[in-house]
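Project outcomes to date are best conveyed with an example. Our students and postdoctoral researchers have been running inverse folding experiments weekly, and each run begins with a structure described purely in C-alpha cells. The record below, which covers 290 residues, was selected by the lab manager from last quarter's runs and is presented without edits.
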C-alpha cells in the first residue's frame, strides 16, 4: 500500500468513539445489574451528622434478618462508614474475576452483600482525594462491574447534600425509591427540604421522611423530652406532600453500638429505637411489596 492509499484516520474521533463504546457498555451493564434487583432504596440527607448511614445500615440488616436477599452500596466515596457500622473488616477485599472483568461484593452479616470504598483504601486513615469525575467513575464501576446477582433489595447510602454522587445515582437508576433522613434541628430540616425538592425535580419516587434523634426518654423521670422544637418533619411532609415514615428516638446505645459495628436492630431489638425502626421498615415493605 502506497502512502496515497493509506486511509485518512481521524484520531480524535476514533478515541471519542472508543470512549463512547466503553460508556455504552458500562451503562448496559448497569441496567442489566439493576434489572435483577427488585427494590432500590436510596437513603439521602441534606447534611451530615443526622444518622443517614445508621438508618441505611439498620434498614439493610432489618431486611436481611427476615430472609430477604439484600445488598448495600456505600456511595460516600470520600467518607465511607458502612463497613465500620456493620462490623465488616476492611482487610477483606472484593473477589475479582479478571477474565470477566468483574468483581464480587464482600459478604457481611446475614449474607448481606457489601461494597464500599473502604475496602479499597490502604488504611482507615487514608483519605480519598478525588474530584467529581473520579468519584462518579467509581460509582459506575460499583453499579456495573460488580456482580450483585438477584436481590430483593439494595440500599444505597449516599453522601450528604446534592452533589456528584447523589446526582449520578438518581440519574442512573430511574426506578429507585428515595428515603430522606433528617433530625428535628432547623438547619437539618432546611437542607432536607432542598434534598426533597431535588428528588422531585428529577421526578424520583420519594418513599418518605425519617426523623432521627427526635427526642429521648429521661433516664431519671421517664418523661419523653424533645431535643429540638417539634413539628419540623411534619411540616416538611405536608409542604412537599410526602410521607413521614416515622421518628426514631435518641438513645446513647445506638451511637455506641454503631461504633462497635453492631446494628441496633439486631443487637438491641427491644429498645425504643429498634421498635420505632421496625415500624418504619414494615411501612416501607408494605409500600413496595403490595
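After processing, the design step wrote out the following sequence:
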Amino acid at each position: 500500500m502506497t502512502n496515497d492509499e493509506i486511509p485518512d484516520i481521524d484520531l480524535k474521533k476514533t478515541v471519542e468513539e472508543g470512549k463512547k463504546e466503553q460508556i455504552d457498555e458500562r451503562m448496559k451493564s448497569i441496567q442489566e445489574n439493576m434489572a435483577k434487583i427488585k427494590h432500590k432504596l436510596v437513603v439521602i440527607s441534606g447534611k451530615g451528622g443526622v444518622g443517614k448511614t445508621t438508618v441505611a445500615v439498620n434498614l439493610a440488616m432489618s431486611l436481611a434478618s427476615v430472609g430477604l436477599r439484600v445488598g448495600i452500596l456505600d456511595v460516600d466515596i470520600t467518607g465511607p462508614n458502612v463497613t465500620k457500622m456493620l462490623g465488616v473488616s476492611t482487610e477483606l477485599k472484593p473477589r475479582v474475576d479478571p477474565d470477566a472483568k468483574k468483581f464480587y461484593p464482600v459478604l457481611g452479616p446475614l449474607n448481606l452483600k457489601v461494597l464500599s470504598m473502604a475496602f479499597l483504601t490502604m488504611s482507615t486513615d487514608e483519605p480519598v482525594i478525588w474530584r467529581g469525575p473520579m468519584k462518579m467513575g467509581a460509582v459506575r464501576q460499583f453499579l456495573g462491574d460488580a456482580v450483585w446477582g438477584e436481590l430483593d433489595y439494595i440500599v444505597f447510602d449516599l453522601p450528604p447534600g446534592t452533589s456528584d454522587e447523589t446526582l449520578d445515582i438518581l440519574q442512573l437508576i430511574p426506578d429507585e425509591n428515595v428515603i430522606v433522613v433528617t433530625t428535628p434541628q432547623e438547619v437539618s430540616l432546611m437542607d432536607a427540604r432542598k434534598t426533597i425538592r431535588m428528588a422531585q425535580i428529577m421526578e424520583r419516587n420519594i418513599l418518605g421522611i425519617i426523623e432521627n434523634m427526635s427526642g429521648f426518654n429521661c433516664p431519671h423521670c421517664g418523661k419523653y423530652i424533645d431535643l429540638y422544637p417539634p413539628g419540623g418533619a411534619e411540616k416538611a411532609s405536608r409542604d412537599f406532600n410526602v410521607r413521614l415514615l416515622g421518628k426514631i428516638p435518641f438513645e446513647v446505645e445506638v451511637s455506641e453500638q454503631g461504633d462497635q459495628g453492631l446494628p441496633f436492630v439486631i443487637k438491641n431489638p427491644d429498645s425504643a429505637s429498634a421498635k420505632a425502626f421496625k415500624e418504619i421498615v414494615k411501612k416501607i415493605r408494605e409500600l413496595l411489596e403490595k
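The longest helix spans residues 11-35. Confidence is low (pLDDT under 50) at residues 9-15. The training component of this project remains on track.
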